[in-house]
Amino acid sequence: MEYDNILSDILGRKDFLVVGKNVIRTDALDKALGKAKYTADYVPKGTTILKVYRSTVAHAKIRSIDTSEALKVPGVEAIYTGADITGNNQIGYALPDQPFLNDKKVHFVGDPIALICAKDEYAATEAMDKMYVD
User: Fold this and answer.
1) What are 45-74's pLDDT values in tens digits?
2) Which residues pair with 133 in a beta bridge?
3) Positive or negative, the Cα torsion across 79, 84, 87, 90?
4) 17 with 51, same domain?
5) Where are the beta strands (DSSP E) in the chain?
6) Residue 97: is its pLDDT beyond 90?
7) 54 & 35 share domain
8) What is the pTM of this model?
9) Whole-angstrom Cα distance, residue 68 to residue 85?
């Protein structure tokens, strides 16, 4: 094959372990069956899970954010809103003109409103269900 010759010329080798050869993929069956483990599947012990509570409506004023019920969920460590950010709450790619966490107004569906920190994903998800934004 031509690419074998090109690699041989560049690298100065004639034999390669993988290039130009049929390789048996020992992980193929696990991947095909959805059983393969990836780095995202391994969560080190003691890792804090973070979920972003986002707006479900566009162009709306935020009158209040109630986190009291969400904070009662076992495993929830903290919930941060725009009121918790001291200093500049503005971000943006070219121009910092968007709030990092919206606490006065949301502009589009998916605007971030709060960060939920929990000991596991189940607690974070349950806390998201107990958040109340008016």
Assistant:
1) 899 999 999 999 999 999 999 999 999 999
2) 65
3) positive
4) no
5) 49-54, 60-61, 65-66, 76-81, 90-91, 98-99, 105-106, 112-118, 132-133
6) no
7) no
8) 0.72
9) 18
